[in-house]
Specification:
This protein has 117 residues and is of the alpha+beta class. The protein is built from six helices and four strands. The chain has one domain (16-111). 42% of the residues lie in helices and 12% in strands.
Length: 117
């Protein structure tokens, strides 16, 4: 059974950038994100093990820290839109279909890494 509790990416409003996070496409309002970027940076500085962010953690690891894997994917998309990191998915290495789903399910949806300045 599939449950779709969010709008389809085709319904994204103008000004929303779409980021493919394998499981979902996350829409980010770039203007609002840029307005609050400093706030995000301050929150990221409190991450329990900041060196893990620099290493490019998976959505599973970040989800465990923040309490929700879906929120981790949203965070990954937000950071990509702000130019802080890139979201890496199986597609980035040319893997599609069931093999991509298997890789993603095992954690191969990552952020490329971020370090506080």
């Amino acid at each position: 059974m599939d449950v779709y509790a969010m709008p389809h990416e085709s319904e994204a409003a103008d000004g929303v950038e779409k980021v493919d996070c394998h499981f979902v496409v996350v829409g980010v309002d770039k203007k609002e994100a840029e307005r609050r970027k400093d706030e995000l940076v301050e929150v990221l500085k409190t991450y329990p093990e900041p060196e893990r962010l620099a290493g490019g953690p998976s959505y599973i690891e970040v989800g465990a820290e923040i309490g929700d894997q879906g929120s981790a994917l949203e965070l990954f998309a937000l950071g990509q839109v702000l130019g802080m990191w890139k979201v890496l998915t199986p597609k980035e290495i040319g893997v599609y279909g069931p093999e991509a789903d298997d890789l993603a399910g095992r954690g191969f949806v990552l952020m490329s890494g971020w370090k506080s300045k």
